[in-house]
Write a sequence for this structure.
């Protein structure tokens, strides 16, 4: 137990000059869904392949997403099919590369624009129902599905130095299509 406390103390007392190229980020992710918004949490680990103080940043990243089971009501209608609703839960793993351009990389506040290309494997579990006009509701039992794909994630961010630590706030939109997820993460560069 003492070793754990010593490790945590070391993590928060190491000077900024000794910080590594690793950044850990976490935050909410949401996407428009039938019946409202669909929410979950995104976690990401990033490793800077180029020195983090240069104007161009190239990072390897890996992470995941998890959402609790959420329901959507019958307020969504598909023409010619009818109204549908149900429940769903999503989990995914992803890895890829991201590039960022920061015009002021050594400033206290350094805004940047970025673009990531990631491979994503997603698992969805849910059930549903469909109400066709003039017919009885059709129910779909709970099932799990999986999909893998490559997507781009444009975004903007802000890196700042506070009390000798480097923090970042990053907003990303997954893909170019309307209805794709958006995330807002807060990250900290690790000191080891």
């Amino acid at each position: 137990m003492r070793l754990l406390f010593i490790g945590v103390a070391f993590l928060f007392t190491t000077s900024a000059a000794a910080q590594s190229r690793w950044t850990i980020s976490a935050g909410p992710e949401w996407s428009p869904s039938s019946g409202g918004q669909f929410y979950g949490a995104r976690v990401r680990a990033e490793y800077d392949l180029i020195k983090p103080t240069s104007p161009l940043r190239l990072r390897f990243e890996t992470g995941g997403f998890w959402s609790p089971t959420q329901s959507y009501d019958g307020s969504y209608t598909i023409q010619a099919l009818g109204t549908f609703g149900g429940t769903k839960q999503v989990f995914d793993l992803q890895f890829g590369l991201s590039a960022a351009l920061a015009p002021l990389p050594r400033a206290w506040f350094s805004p940047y624009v970025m673009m990531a290309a990631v491979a994503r494997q997603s698992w969805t579990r849910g059930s549903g129902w469909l109400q066709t006009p003039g017919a009885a509701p059709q129910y779909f039992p709970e099932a799990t599905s999986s999909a893998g794909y490559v997507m781009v994630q444009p975004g903007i961010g802000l890196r700042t130095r506070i009390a000798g630590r480097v923090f970042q706030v990053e907003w990303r939109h997954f893909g170019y299509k309307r209805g794709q997820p958006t995330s807002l993460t807060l990250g900290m560069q690790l000191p080891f």
Confidence is low (pLDDT under 50) at residues 8-17. Residues 5 and 42 are 27 Å apart (CA to CA). The chain has one domain: 20-189.
